[in-house]
Design a protein that fits this description.
28 helices, 23% strand, binds adenosine-5'-diphosphate, single chain, alpha/beta, binds magnesium ion
């Protein structure tokens, strides 16, 4: 039984891998059964479709779902329009039905959501056939039946059904062909479509495996196994080579989304081994989940985090010795249909957590009603956005004393609740959601950072991926190591930029058909040679202050104002005045500016910055849209602004939005374009749409780069539908981040208790991003690049701040010593420009390696 998740089905390479896995299992003499999830993001899009349909605005969402499937069909060379016509029609009819009745019940919801899995498997079966595999498409609903339980509510019956998984001789005899079928969907006794729970395809596959009494279930996903923490957040997370069913179950329930919590039971019942492997790197072995592992003895195996929890704190002195108090309060939870997650009690206080359901936040009205009800027996209050951090393992009680140092990381945080599983496999505490990442990272470093590899704990995620990274993707600096070492020893701490990398990135952006103009966001790196290089490569310059405008004019002789864009925010009328003088294009970001300085704006042309309502990005400080952000004019303010502009003869010739930074989802800019095009109805003169920047680069190993081809597909589709607009972009990080590294020598290495510190000659005074945003920069010992990184250390600078840390729990070779040069990668953007003279220490210098004479080893 092979199960492929939505992120494992998006590209042609994924499908080639899938077909070669099928072939190799067939060759090994197995019969093969394939279960697929919907394409990544499609289940969410179908949810959006339902909401949009209820207000009659489903057409664009439908179009987007169609487009994504047709694009995939194209990529894998199958006839999308023909194969999917019938399913698009079903979706259309369902959406139309919802728009008429303005009502969706759980049964209808399940029908809509099921279409995602159906469509992908229809395409997949034809693809497999084209690869010479005798594949047969099967409707999972024919075989997978939900357990009837009348006590369940309709949404539980239809959206979170439990399925029967008894051995099924009929299914076992069904066919010798390769079967390809859907995860996530099943049917009930009435023949209605039901869902097995959000992200439940793993569970579908486990039920199928049990029915077939399969020899094993392989879950193919986007990470090469189960790790000691979520590797997308903690690249130093270690591979767990083996786990027992109970441990995997506990980990999944505690929030490790790599497995659906209900997928273990059917496997355990039939002793079917489970393997978790990566579609992108099929050569890696992954994790085996089995009945009993070779290792025993108490230990913590992993950390899992669940976000978005609501805590209810109930206090009363009356509780002391009162009979039936807990029964009374839990009864209220049942009545208000809240399922309780964690519980902690003391003599006068009970705290419980409520988990979000299917990733949706707790219903505010229902919560309010619960609190009112509880008030009759105690004082009750709720705390939102908490996170539960769970240590999962075996006999945790007997290792609690070892957790002492790990718990120190909680010093500064408020701990809301501590709970320990009676079964002794999990120890959980609840903290404010915003501290979760930091606490998890620190705990992980303390618990697993120094662990040697053994039968259970394998290499880290980063190490695994570095092993399989092809030479062609090796960063530029691999080719000029000796030159960089010379620079570091000669000049001290230094940012080094590679001109070729910058020019290559500029070339990528210029190849985007739908984009007419690109402005380099000067604030990302304003080293004069870098700015000139990009201007000479044909990009415009985006400036955010008079300082940047003047700098650009001083730097570039005959600077063409038409290639300068000024995008200030919260500035005075004088600055706008300067902007109109020095830049060809000025962006207005509030209505208030027009009221305050009508004379500055009268008779001018501007772009208007709009807040499309939702921000994206790697940290909340860099999400630059949404109600928490200070930028832009919201949809509600547009009509008034258009009127005011009309009155003062101000023409809005373009619209602008910049939703955030470090974004890797290629659809983002297409969505921004659609939002801007819709706002353009207020501004008939608006003909250019500046979609902002925010194009991300992978900051951690193992993260796929932004797929420019797909971004381009979205923009092309937009441009085709809206040829009247010219599309602009204003990237910064994308152009320069990977071109830059920070070099610094080791000053001292120090051990303190459990911790090892590697001190550098510069710290947050040169690179503040880790301290400011918790950003991750890969760190290497450039002097000893060929040696295995086999020790863990905190990489710190000389600044008098506890936060002067460039990397937590990083792996370096054991032999690392004073005077070695460390290289901090992806430091070209927002590095030197955000540096400080704090402690009167000058930040690192800057050097551009020129195009004409690139240093080579
Ligand atoms: P699929 O779409 O293939 O079902 P999921 O997104 O459901 O994939 O699960 C894979 C993701 O699980 C990984 O990308 C990873 O970020 C996350 N994850 C969370 N905790 C862990 C963990 N302990 N080990 C591995 N992956 C984890
Ligand atoms: Mg999954």
């Amino acid at each position: 039984m092979l199960k492929f998740g939505g992120t494992s089905l998006q590209s042609r390479e994924h499908w080639e891998t899938l077909s070669s896995i099928v072939t190799s299992r067939l060759t090994a003499g197995y019969r093969v059964f394939v279960v697929c999830s919907a394409l990544a993001t499609i289940s969410k899009a179908l949810e959006t479709l339902i909401d949009a349909a209820a207000s009659g605005r489903h057409e664009p969402v439908l179009e987007e779902i169609r487009r994504q499937h047709l694009a995939l069909a194209d990529r894998i060379n199958v006839d999308g329009p023909k194969l999917l016509a019938e399913h698009f029609q079903v979706l259309e009819r369902l959406a139309y039905g919802i728009s008429l009745t303005e009502h969706v019940d759980p049964r209808l919801r399940a029908r809509v959501l099921a279409v995602g899995e159906i469509m992908i498997t229809v395409l997949g079966s034809v693809f497999l056939a084209s690869r010479g595999i005798d594949a047969q498409w099967m409707d999972a609903r024919r075989v997978l039946k939900s357990r009837e339980d009348r006590s369940l509510l309709p949404h539980e019956r239809y959206l979170s059904a439990r399925c029967l998984s008894d051995p099924d001789p009929e299914l076992q005899a069904i066919s010798n062909r390769v079967i390809i079928t859907q995860g996530f969907i099943a049917s009930n006794a009435l023949g209605h479509t039901v869902l097995v729970g959000w992200e439940g395809s793993d569970t579908s596959a486990a039920c199928f495996a049990a029915k077939l009494e399969a020899s094993r279930l392989e879950i193919w996903t986007d990470v090469p196994g189960i790790f000691t923490a979520d590797p997308s957040l903690i690249p130093d997370a270690r591979l767990l080579k083996q786990l027992e069913y109970d441990e995997a179950q506990e980990l999944a329930s505690a929030g490790a989304v790599v497995l659906h919590p209900r997928c273990i039971d059917p496997l355990r019942d039939h002793c079917i081994p489970l393997l978790v492997r990566s579609t992108a790197n099929p050569e890696l072995e992954g994790t085996a989940v089995v009945n009993a592992t070779s290792e025993s003895g108490p230990q913590v195996k992993a950390i899992a985090t669940r976000l978005g929890l609501t805590l209810i704190i109930m206090e009363t002195p009356r509780m002391w010795h009162s009979v039936g108090f807990l029964a009374r309060i839990f009864n209220s939870f049942a009545q208000h249909k809240f399922s309780v997650g964690l519980v902690a009690t003391s003599e006068t206080c009970v705290s419980v957590s409520i988990d979000p359901v299917h990733g949706f936040p707790v219903d505010a009205a229902a919560l309010e009603a619960l609190l009112v009800d509880l008030e009759s027996v105690c004082t009750a209050r709720s705390i939102q956005d908490c996170a539960a951090i769970s240590l999962v393992g075996r006999d945790i009680r007997s290792v609690l004393h070892e957790l002492g140092p790990a718990m120190e990381v909680l010093d500064e945080q408020k701990l809301y609740l501590v709970s320990q599983a009676a079964s002794d496999v999990n120890f959980t505490f609840v903290v404010d959601g915003k501290h979760a990442g930091r606490v998890t990272q620190k705990l992980h470093g303390i618990l697993f950072g120094q662990r040697a590899q053994d039968g259970q704990f394998g290499p880290s995620y980063r190490e695994l991926l570095e092993e399989v990274t092809p030479e062609s993707r090796a960063p530029w600096w691999h080719g000029c190591r000796a030159a960089l070492l010379r620079i570091a020893h000669r000049s001290g701490p230094c940012f080094v930029y590679d001109a070729q990398t910058i020019v290559d990135r500029a070339g990528h952006l210029k190849s985007l058909q739908a984009v007419s103009r690109c402005f380099y966001s000067v604030k990302a790196c304003s080293h004069p040679e870098v700015v000139s290089l990009l201007y000479n490569a044909g990009l415009g310059l985006e400036c955010v202050s008079p300082g940047e405008l003047n700098f650009a004019h001083d730097l570039i002789e005959d600077l063409d104002p038409d290639r300068v864009l000024f995008t200030p925010n919260f500035v005075t009328g004088d600055e706008y005045e300067t902007g109109f003088r020095l830049a060809g294009h000025v962006t207005l970001d509030s209505l208030r500016a027009l009221e305050l300085w009508p004379d500055v704006f009268a008779g001018r042309e501007v772009l208007l910055r709009i807040d499309p309502g939702q921000g994206y990005g790697h940290h909340k400080h860099v999400r630059t849209a949404g109600k928490q952000s200070k930028f832009g004019v919201s949809a509600g303010g547009l009509a008034r602004l258009a009127e005011l502009a009309g009155n003062m003869d101000l023409r809005v010739t373009g619209l602008h939005a910049h939703v955030g930074s470090g974004i890797l989802t290629p659809e983002t800019w297409g969505e921004t374009a659609i939002a801007l095009a819709s706002a353009a109805r207020f501004f008939p003169d608006a003909h250019h749409l500046n979609l902002g920047g925010g194009l991300g680069v992978p900051e951690r190993p193992g993260i796929s780069p932004l797929d420019l081809d797909r971004m381009s597909e979205y923009l092309d589709a937009f441009q085709k539908a809206h040829p009247q607009f010219e599309v602009w972009l204003e990237p910064g990080r994308y152009l320069v981040a990977e071109s830059g590294v920070l070099l610094a020598r080791v000053t001292q290495i120090k051990r303190k208790g459990e911790m090892r510190y590697v001190g550098l000659e510069t710290g947050i005074n040169s690179l503040i991003r880790p301290a400011l945003y918790g950003s991750y920069h890969p760190i290497y010992n450039l002097t000893r690049l060929d040696e295995t990184p086999d020790m863990t250390a905190e990489i710190v600078g000389p600044i008098c701040e506890t936060g002067d840390i460039l990397g937590h729990a990083r792996r370096l070779p054991h032999s690392t010593t004073e005077q070695d040069v460390l290289l901090i990668a992806t430091a070209g953007a927002y590095g030197r420009v955000m540096s400080l003279n704090y402690n009167m220490r000058s930040p690192a210098a800057e050097i551009l390696l020129s195009l004409s004479e690139p240093p080579q080893d």
